[in-house]
Amino acid sequence: MKTTAPIGALKIKDAAKYLGGLSTITVHRLIRRGFIKPNRALRHILIPVSELDKFLAEGQN
Q: Is 23 exposed, middle or buried (0-12, 13-18, 19+ CB in 10 A)?
């Protein structure tokens, strides 16, 4: 079975898993510090997968 990266946006809990099993508290801290920019247009905080990929790529530099 082939696994692919999700398309679109993820809720905090799913974003934490996507970032390698971080806690949701850590994801909230990253948002508060401006490292990750969420989409707050809806009732739930959604984080675009492209934003998470950008954060991971910057961490490798």
A: exposed
Ramachandran category for residue 34: left, alpha or beta (phi over 0 → left; psi -120 to 50 → alpha): left
pLDDT band at 4 (very low <50, low <70, confident <90, very high): low
- Please tell me the distance from the alpha carbon of residue 20 to that of residue 47, in angstroms, as a whole number: 15
The torsion of the CA quartet 51, 49, 17, 54, rounded to 10 degrees, works out to -30
The C-alpha atoms of residue 10 and residue 17 are separated, in whole angstroms, by 10
> What pTM did the predictor assign?
0.80
